[in-house]
Amino acid sequence: MSISANIISVGGGKGGIGKSVVSTNLAVGMALSGQKVVLMDGDFGASNLHALLGTSHPPYGFQDLFINNLSSDSLLIETGISNLKFISSAGDNPGSANIDPERVQKIISFIKNLKADTIILDLGPGTSFNVLDFFNISPQNIVMSSPEMTSVMKTFSFIRAALFRKLSLYLQDQPDLQRLVDHSHPSQTDVETYTVDILRENVEKIDNSQIQRINEIIDKFKPGIIINRVRNKKDLLAGNNLVNLVKKYLDVDLNYLGYIVESDRVRDSVEEMVPFLIKDPQSKPSENLQQIIGSLTNTDLHLVKEDGRIFVSKHVRLSSGWDV
Ligand SMILES: Nc1ncnc2c1ncn2[C@@H]1O[C@H](COP(=O)(O)OP(=O)(O)O)[C@@H](O)[C@H]1O
Ligand SMILES: [Mg+2]
Q1: Is any atom of ligand 1 closer than 6 Å to the C-beta of 165?
Q2: What is the CA radius of gyration of the chain?
Q3: Which among 287, 252, 283 is positioned nearest to 267, based on CA atoms?
Q4: Which of 82, 152, 161, 324 has the largest CB neighbor count within 10 A?
Q5: How far is CA 172 from CA 105, 167, 180, 190, 266, in A?
Q6: Is 263 in the pocket of ligand 1 (CB under 6 A)?
Q7: Which element (helix H / strand E) includes 123?
Q8: Is 124 touching ligand 1 by the criterion CB < 6 Å?
Q9: Which ligand is nearest to the CA of 124?
Q10: For residue range 221-236, what is the model confidence (pLDDT) as tens digits?
């Protein structure tokens, strides 16, 4: 087990695009492939991950860190799937999504200190600073989108808001420059008025010496993307459209990890409270998800179910994958 875990945060501007379903099944797939995985519910306002894992009433949640001073390890809930533990955020009450910055920092250091190979953090919707800060703790973060143009545009805004939040925190001691990334909320502006090229031009006018560091932050920012609920060939173009849009206006290289088809198998699995990868690892959405895990881990993962048991085969890919 590695000392510092690989954190994967899963975000995306809209609710209902499959962040929680996909996070859960990603965590299940990685655990089945032999990694020690912790899945954390980061939707502090409306947690539902426990239900996707088949638990109606989780015994405790991360709030117990603050209320009962429980230790990190005692918050981990067994899932019944070997190698996979879970941290709930259930026990939410109205307003629990508005966590103050001190608590955000405490939760972030709690997540970073968890002992696991991989931690998957399922985020809530929207582009509030809390959501963006949780998204940005991981260099291997994933943005989800559905294929419709409105969703793609929302996803673009989410990516821009996350990048500009990162730059804003870096520039917090230089209010003149910070104002350039903060002058209005990026999610409310159209693509052309708030681009990285315009930002660079404006920074150069004020303080040329910062441009190199800003470019380094932009270069390092490489979220992965997954397009969920694909119904036809045309929908498949959404991934490339998003990659091109983000390159053109933000100069950011997205890592296209793959897509998942729209399928009743997914909906049924949610209703039955069994992850679709376990219910039917050879279904189309499960195959899509195995491809995505392959892109993330640089392995070829193949799951087969026989007589109710799941068999796993895993091969390391020879070509190199994500450079982090
Ligand atoms: N690929 C898919 N095919 C069919 N239904 C899906 C798919 N992905 C998600 N869903 C449906 O969308 C619902 C919302 O998904 P969820 O993961 O809770 O979204 P989010 O976490 O982004 O708000 C799920 O309960 C499921 O019924
Ligand atoms: Mg969710």
Answers
A1: no
A2: 20
A3: 283
A4: 161
A5: 17, 9, 11, 24, 43
A6: yes
A7: strand 118-123
A8: no
A9: 2
A10: 999 999 999 999 999 9
**The two three-digit tokens of residue 263, written as one number:** 């399928």
Ligand 2 center–CA 215 separation, angstroms: 32
pLDDT at 105: 87
What confidence score (pLDDT) does residue 94 get?
Answer: 47
What domain range includes position 307? Answer: 6-148+222-316
What pLDDT, on a 0 to 100 scale, did the predictor assign at position 226?
98
- 158 alpha carbon, closest ligand: 1
Number of domains in the chain: 1
Phi, psi at 89, each rounded to 5°: -120, 20
Average of per-residue pLDDT across 256-284: 96
Which atom of ligand 1 is nearest the CA belonging to 43? Answer: 21
Predicted pLDDT at 235:
97
CA of 210 to the centre of ligand 2 (A): 37
- Give every CB contact of residue 177 below 8 A, 6+ residues apart in sequence: 171, 203, 206, 207, 210
Rounded CA separation 9/26 (Å): 11
User: If you take atom 27 of ligand 1, which residue's CA is the nearest one?
Assistant: 267
Examine residue 200 and state whether it is found in any structural domain, yes or no: no
**Is residue 111 in a domain?**
yes
Which residues are 209's β-sheet partners?
none
The CATH number of the domain where 43 resides is what? 3.40.50.300
In the block, residue with structure tokens 């009450």: 93
Average pLDDT over residues 82-99: 75
Banded model confidence at residue 89, pLDDT cuts 50, 70, 90: confident
In a domain, 49, yes or no: yes
Residue 57: CA count within 13 A, CB half-sphere: 1
311 in any annotated domain:
yes
